[in-house]
Amino acid sequence: MNLTLRQAVPADVPALRLLIDASVRGLQTTDYTPAQIEGALETVYGVDSQLIADGTYFVVEAAEVIVGCGGWSKRKTLFGGDRWMAREDSLLDPRHDPAKIRAFFVHPDWVRRGIGSVILEACEKAATAAGFTRLEMGATLTGVPLYRARGYVALESLDVPLQNGESIKVVRMEKRIV
Fold this sequence. Notes:
The mean pLDDT is 95. This protein is of the alpha+beta class and 178 residues long. Helix content is 29%, strand content 30%. The radius of gyration is 15 Å and the shape is globular. The N and C termini lie far apart (33 Å).
């Protein structure tokens, strides 16, 4: 089946919400408890409309259905969708700051087909074209193997508090662009 990569647009938001929910519930159950997953869906995970507005968010479609998404950012926020209250939307300086790799989700029926890698490569190329020489992310435990395989190095483990009293581990990772 043909896969198509394109920039996300505001009209994609309803489909992205469904994809994110399916991805988290279907793929993160071995890394996080049900309470952590619910809390993360209510607090951290979700569509980041700023990425769409900035033109730095991508989707992959199969037969016109969105099966994966992810992006990069030139803003300080390390992770979190529109509901995440710890946002820092000021712009980064590519001469000193790393671009942020953000909000990757793949539908459980479409894993292990290279979708995450295709999106990551597009993000890395776009961030490099914008002058960034380093990339950084807050990776879920589920995403760490993909990012490690693509040259990212773990810097620290973060405990992210959730509204329901739970917390989730996120790994801050970095890659230098050569």
